[in-house]
From TrEMBL:
It is a multi-pass membrane protein. One of its GO terms (molecular function) is transmembrane transporter activity. The keyword Zinc-finger does not apply. It comes from Siminovitchia fortis. Its main location: membrane. It holds the Pfam family BPD_transp_2. Keywords: Cell membrane, Membrane, Transmembrane, Transmembrane helix. The chain crosses the membrane at residues 7-32, 52-74, 86-102, 108-129, 141-159, 192-211, 239-257, 290-309, 321-340. It is found in: Cell membrane. The keyword Membrane applies. It comes from the Bacteria. This is ABC transporter permease.
């Protein structure tokens, strides 16, 4: 079976997982709703019922594109990082400090400086688990999960006790950013902020890096077979650290884009599991940057569909969460199935090679 056939089956498997997850959601609606047809109609068609709902899909998809890309990059090296949430917080916080306390610059230069600070904050925070993995083979799932809590709690403490705006009252936030550096809306009737274009640029950058550069080739090779990569002269420790730092930088950029496009300031607990949702996006996209864009939009569509359904019917928007969980289960099950299938194929090939060698030895 060639690569094109494997890709085709992979796409069919993902579409099947999406279909069955949504189908299960519809079955649940039939059991819990007095008017299931109206609820399903609201869920499916509601997100497209107005320009505002469509713009909400795009705005919700924007940070998911960044976190999905962040995790797709690091998953390519077979490092199962779960640290996008913490890296998003740190990058967003550092970028917000630059937005609030660096003054006297032209707006465009100031925006670039803010983005650089956010990229650096996320990358430096990503360096920690990357170094621990490369140096001592520390389990990246454990280290990144623990560091998430360090990031969330530390930034919460700082925003509540050090950098809180005195005029914010009971809300824990920094002073509002200058209007000149905010990511404005495309129009009043279609309030999508310009961060979506930054997200699309990030997709193009990550795709080019992974598939058109030596670094991307080395990252993918390390992910496929780290021992082969090591014997081939690739500095695998460096690749692991770099991949996690790039992942952290992307997550950090996503954090500041969300703050500059939606909130206008740094708010405590501004992320509602954006980093963890990025794991689902990367799994759905099979770590392909282009597919990350589509997966993020679909995931945001589910969220908006749940909100519209709750407003227009007797079904809670938590149904969308159930569908998202089912998506994870079905996609993960398919990934395990593919892994076992490929392992079986490799065993059969190795067995055939061993058998051929034995026959040759007998002939000799």
């Amino acid at each position: 079976m060639n690569k094109r056939q494997f890709l085709f089956l992979d796409i069919i498997g993902i579409l099947g997982a999406v279909f069955f997850a949504v189908l299960c959601g519809f079955v649940i609606i039939f059991f819990v709703s007095e008017e299931p047809a109206a609820a399903i109609s609201s869920f499916v068609l509601g997100p497209f019922s107005s320009p505002f709902n469509i713009s909400t899909i795009v705005n919700k998809a924007t940070p998911l594109i960044f976190t999905g890309l962040a995790l797709a990059v690091v998953f390519q090296t077979n490092i199962f990082s779960m640290g996008a949430e913490g890296q998003l917080y740190v990058g967003g916080f550092v970028g917000a400090l630059a937005a609030t306390y660096i003054q006297g610059m032209p707006a465009m230069i100031h925006i670039l400086v803010i983005f650089l600070f956010a990229l650096a904050g996320g990358a430096v925070f990503g360096f920690i688990p990357g170094y621990l993995k490369a140096k001592w083979n520390a389990n990246e799932v454990v280290t990144t999960l623990m560091l998430n809590y360090v990031a969330i709690i530390s930034t919460s403490y700082l925003i509540n006790n050090v950098f809180k705006d005195p005029e914010s009252g009971g809300f824990a936030r920094m002073p509002f950013f200058d209007k000149d550096i905010l990511l404005g809306k495309i129009s009043g009737t279609f309030p999508v902020h310009y961060g979506i274009f930054i997200a699309i640029a990030a997709v193009i950058f990550v795709y080019t890096m992974l598939y058109k550069t030596r670094l991307g080739y080395e990252m993918r090779l390390v992910g496929q077979n780290i021992e082969f990569a090591r014997y081939g002269g690739i500095k695998t420790s460096r690749i692991i650290i770099v991949s996690v730092m790039i992942s952290g930088a992307l997550a950090g950029l996503g954090g500041i884009v969300e703050l500059m496009g939606i909130h206008g300031t740094y708010k405590d607990s501004f992320s509602i599991n954006l980093g963890f949702d990025g794991i689902i996006i990367a799994l759905l996209a099979r770590n392909n940057p282009i597919a990350v864009l589509l997966a993020a939009v679909f995931y945001a569509y589910l969220q908006v569909g749940g909100q519209v359904m709750q407003a227009e019917s007797d079904v809670s928007r938590e149904l969308a969460v159930i569908i998202q969980v089912l998506l994870v289960l079905f996609v993960s099950a398919q990934a395990v199935f593919n892994y076992l299938k490929q392992r079986s194929i490799m065993k059969n090939k190795n067995g055939k090679i061993s058998g051929d060698k034995a026959v040759k030895a007998d002939v000799v």
